[in-house]
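It is worth pausing here to work through a concrete case rather than discussing structure prediction in the abstract. The textbook approach is simple: state the sequence, then state the predicted structure, then interpret. We follow exactly that order.
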Amino acid sequence: MTRLLRGIILLCVLLAVLFGIQVFVFFSIETFFSITNDFERLLLYTGTAAIPLGFILASIFGKMHENVITKSFYVLTGILLGIGANIALASLIVWGVFWIFGSSVYFSFPMLAGILFALAIIASIYGVWNASHPIIKHIEVSIPNLPDIWKGKCVVQLSDIHLGYVYQLNFMRRVVALVNDLHPEAVFITGDLFDGMDGDLEHAVDTIGDIRSQQGIFFVNGNHETYFGLEKSFDLLKRTPVRILKDEVVDVQGLKVIGIGYPKQGEKKDIVRIAESLSSAWKGMPNVLLYHAPTHIQGFQDAGINLQLSGHTHKGQLFPFNLITKIVHKGHDYGLYTQGDYTLYTTSGIGTWGPSMRLGNRPEIVAITLR
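Step two, the predicted structure:
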């Protein structure tokens, strides 16, 4: 299957899902508020259909022509898409209430729908604020035979920042300031530093060079770097002190740092086999694996990985999509998982994709104390 055909299929699936949600919203609003006037129905249908179409067009136009209008259009349609998803969830609750209680319910359709829609909009406003205010998540991880130089030291994991039209220079400056306050021994960036859109990236990326880390900054690419362009991503990072790891191992004061890049679209990449092929450089020694997605867990554990740092999932980003990511990643979509000498930490990440809002989770910078 060609890359173009896969792209077309993915786009069609995405459109089907987005339009399906908006059709549900249209049908629900029409029913809840007894809209029968043809002109009002046309306005409602046009408005609901325009949201997903607008986001798709904004993504396309943004790649073709970068300016204030296309940037604003992209951000606006993304937020509207998130509001639409929250209103769809509110509509589902309304239908559920009336399906369970029927005519015995004390609220009318318009009253209950109006209350829940208002709450959905308030939640969306909070979600936009939440998405731009990352917290510091503190965890502790034990690594066998850890050299004394690393014991009790803090390393920082950054993931899914998604620099682009939404997250730019000022946001990155705040992230860097928060990281520097942790006085990290090392910083690990586990992919999706770039969103796939352009934006003011040179200055934002240069700011990464202001991170003060004793042993350096290490990076592996995620899936969005492959959309943005791997070489383009690497060229931008070469402006900074960041060490790009391309399926390789580096020794950092006795700690082996393994970096495996996320596969390109259509690339067949045996991730576990790559790790095993590198094992002569780290087997039996304290090690950290940087890999964008929380996958291949059993394979990495069997190979002797001590600590796997991943992101990718955003913990669903918007409720109830966290339920989907939990199923897809078999409960490893977020948080700390330890079995024997193997530990996985999957972060919710810092930035967002699509709607610049988060509900049901917090964006985070991960401060890991090594033991």
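Step three, interpretation. The chain has eleven helices and twelve strands. The mean pLDDT is 90.
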